[in-house]
Design goal:
With 170 residues, this protein is mostly beta strands. It contains two helices and nine strands. The chain has an eight-stranded antiparallel β-barrel. The protein is elongated and about 85 Å long. It starts with a helix and ends with a strand. Keywords: Signal. Residues 1-20 form the signal peptide.
Length: 170
């Protein structure tokens, strides 16, 4: 009888701890540099499903700077007003690597937006590695490649983004 009771208690404890990390929601913010002369900022809400797979709904801003024609340096005018885009989208992130206190996801998604003149569509592919911190916080590093259509100024955007994920209250 003791063995059966201990087995039941162990099974309940293991199932409760397995459920604790699934279906969690996080708000994340990341910034990074993209080739060539690009600054990327993303604010997103992420819903994690089983085994660290996740869905991400995001808002993205992108800024491309250039040297000023008159002074030959990067000045506030050539930094902030050269070329800007924004977009909203969704990405599916299947987990491909699991480790102790870290895991890695592919990031496959699409977005729509504008460069203040015309419509832009985006296809996003990348890899995101997450490092678990205390109390559900997560730090991530993301290698990303974005294909923007029908944009001729910035067809491909490749780069690195670093960010933080904050758990939401349930």
């Amino acid at each position: 009888m003791k063995k059966v009771l201990l087995s039941m208690i162990a099974a309940i404890c293991m199932s409760a701890s397995a459920i604790a990390q699934s279906h969690s929601d996080r708000i994340s913010f990341g910034m990074g540099l993209l080739y060539e002369n690009g600054l990327d900022a993303t604010l997103s809400w992420e819903h994690e499903t089983k085994y660290h797979n996740a869905w991400e709904y995001f808002v993205n801003g992108y800024l491309k700077w250039d040297e000023c024609q008159s002074c030959g340096h990067i000045c506030p005018e050539s930094f902030w007003k050269n070329y800007n885009t924004w977009g909203i989208g969704v990405a599916y992130k299947p987990c491909v690597v699991r480790g102790r206190n870290n895991y890695g996801n592919l990031r496959i998604g699409a977005s729509v937006g504008s460069n203040t003149d015309k419509f832009l569509g985006g296809f996003h592919v990348g890899y995101e590695h997450n490092f678990a911190l205390r109390k559900g916080w997560v730090m991530y590093v993301q290698a990303k490649c974005d294909l923007m259509v029908p944009d001729r100024k910035d067809l491909f955007r490749e780069g690195i983004v670093i960010g933080i994920k904050i758990p939401t209250l349930k």
